[in-house]
């Protein structure tokens, strides 16, 4: 029986040897039952309560559906998932693929095991969450640390917090500057110009300083700097698919406040002055008075100098690098503002005339065939030593068998034969695993009709561009999404700071959506479709 092993541990604080230990004990278990281990999968420092963020288990399911093994062996069901929902999903997909599931205690996991173990693991997570919440509440009521490190403080085991004086001086400077009339962008720019490390060691952004009023975050809104610890502001909700934790804010009436005067960094007067200025500016930022059209490529436009996203600037439909806008020249020297309409027009022109150009598609196909040829050659070089060794062992075993048959065997011949057969089995298993991981080189061609349909969508979008906004009909929004789907990102790099000077626009698109696999010569199936990106560059011009 061909067996795949899977191992996982949850936290970065756990011993990374846990993966190796799980695989070792599973491998010994498989050998004791005469199973051949052909593949291994793992997820290190990833919680078992989600799926989409676990490449190991996703690759395991894909390999199972490709019939690369007959059974999966894990230390326990909770290694696959601690969610009843996800465990049932995983086992269901394995069952649909005709692949069994075994653990160290059960050679064939049945539905009853899934239900019991999944419920047990889910209850464990709930109990752990409740205990964690209870401990954090106790710490909060005592004015101790309750979570990740907070800029300006250092926490010790047990939750005791002390002020980090170097960071405290930066905090006092931020509050004094804002109370004195500077904007958060002014302050961020000054700190970056002086190479003062930000809270995470990088650059300062205006949002780091200003924060968000609804979430009461940011340097200027953090009450502990004035000697009051605020807690119970939100619940952290984990996405069932991605495993990401996002805050769900509670009404301010449910927030709890604990006085911690020994942790105050700024005085009451400065705190009050900053709060008054924040309150006076609430709702008066210029962006609240301007109804902007959502950009067709919003979020995809990236600065060629710092990699940050381009964001709206002013009310005249212009764009600016968010890195420069939020952190000043020290964060990014690209201070050019660009016309959103001109950028969008160039991108659409590039998508229609360059992405779909026959020579671009032909070059793309040639590059992928060359890539697969290189990969196949590299895999052949890796397989060759194993193939030679298996052949040598076959010949050696054959010679010993012939010697035994002729009656010329010595007294140590049986031990020698046993050793050679064990080595042969191990080498053959490694060779089978290596071959299983070697994918055939797919032949691809341009999908008939797909590129033409996409070109029509681009032309429709060009005609509708000026009228599309967030309130547009669903058909327009679908059209925008169809065109965006072909673009992974767009890198914009001004060639000088002068207004109207040339700007380079490079579109990184997904030509693979237009490629289709060539039919298998046997006629039974098609080879897998390739997915990857390519780049095009519309004509450089001034914007």
Structural key phrases:
single chain, 543 residues, alpha+beta, Rossmann fold, Hect, E3 ligase catalytic domain fold, five-stranded mixed β-sheet, four-stranded parallel β-sheet, 20 strands, disordered C terminus
Describe it:
It is a single chain. The chain is an alpha+beta fold and 543 residues long. Helices cover 44% and strands 16% of the residues. Strands 11, 16, 17, 19 and 20 form a five-stranded mixed β-sheet that branches. Strands 2-1-3-4 form a four-stranded parallel β-sheet, sandwiched between helices. Helix 6 (165-179) packs across helix 9 (268-281) and helix 11 (340-355) packs antiparallel against helix 14 (450-464).
């Amino acid at each position: 029986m061909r067996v795949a092993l899977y191992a996982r541990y949850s936290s970065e604080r756990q011993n990374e040897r846990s993966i190796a230990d799980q695989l070792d004990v599973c491998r010994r278990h498989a050998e004791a039952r005469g199973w051949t281990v052909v593949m291994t999968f793992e997820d290190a420092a990833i919680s078992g309560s989600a799926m989409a963020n676990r490449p190991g288990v996703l690759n395991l399911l894909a390999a199972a559906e490709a019939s690369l093994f007959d059974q999966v062996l894990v230390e326990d069901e909770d290694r696959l998932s601690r969610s009843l929902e996800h465990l049932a999903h995983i086992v269901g997909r394995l069952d649909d693929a005709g692949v069994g599931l075994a653990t160290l205690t059960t050679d064939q996991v049945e539905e009853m095991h899934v239900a019991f173990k999944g419920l047990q693991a889910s209850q464990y997570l709930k109990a752990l969450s409740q205990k964690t919440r209870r401990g954090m509440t106790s710490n909060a009521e005592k004015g101790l640390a309750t979570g990740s490190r907070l800029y300006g403080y250092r926490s010790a085991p047990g939750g005791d917090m002390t002020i980090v004086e170097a960071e405290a001086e930066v905090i006092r400077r931020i509050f004094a500057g804002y109370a004195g009339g500077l904007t958060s962008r002014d302050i961020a720019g000054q700190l970056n110009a002086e190479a003062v490390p930000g809270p995470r060691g990088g650059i300062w952004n205006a949002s780091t300083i200003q924060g968000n009023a609804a979430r009461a975050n940011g340097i200027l809104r953090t009450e502990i700097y004035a000697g009051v610890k605020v807690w119970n502001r939100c619940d952290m909700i984990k996405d069932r698919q991605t495993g990401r934790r996002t805050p769900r804010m509670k009404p301010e009436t449910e927030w709890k406040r604990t006085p911690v005067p020994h942790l105050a960094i700024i005085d009451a007067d400065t705190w009050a002055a900053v709060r008054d200025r924040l309150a006076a500016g609430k709702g008066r930022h210029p962006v609240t008075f301007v109804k902007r059209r959502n950009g067709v490529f919003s979020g995809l436009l990236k600065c060629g100098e710092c990699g940050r996203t381009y964001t709206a600037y002013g009310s005249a439909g212009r764009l600016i690098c968010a890195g420069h806008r939020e952190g000043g020249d020290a964060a990014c020297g690209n201070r050019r503002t660009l016309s959103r309409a001109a950028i969008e027009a160039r991108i659409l022109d590039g998508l229609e005339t360059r992405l779909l150009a026959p020579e671009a598609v032909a070059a793309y196909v040639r590059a992928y065939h060359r890539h697969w040829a290189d990969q196949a050659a590299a895999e052949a070089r890796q397989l060759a030593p194993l193939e030679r060794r298996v052949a040598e062992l076959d010949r050696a075993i054959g010679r010993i068998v012939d010697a035994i048959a002729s009656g010329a065997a010595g007294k140590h011949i049986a031990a020698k034969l046993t050793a050679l057969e064990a080595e042969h089995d191990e080498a053959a298993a490694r060779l089978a695993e290596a071959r299983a991981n070697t994918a055939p080189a797919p032949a691809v061609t341009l999908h008939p009709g797909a590129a033409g349909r996409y070109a029509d969508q681009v032309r429709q979008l060009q005609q509708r561009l000026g009228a599309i906004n967030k309130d547009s009909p669903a058909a327009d929004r679908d059209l925008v999404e169809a065109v965006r789907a072909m673009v992974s990102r767009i890198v914009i790099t001004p060639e000088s700071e002068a207004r109207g000077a040339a700007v380079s626009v490079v579109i990184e698109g997904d030509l693979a959506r237009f490629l289709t696999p060539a039919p298998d010569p046997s006629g039974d199936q098609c080879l897998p479709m390739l997915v990857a990106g390519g780049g095009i560059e519309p004509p450089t011009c001034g914007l």
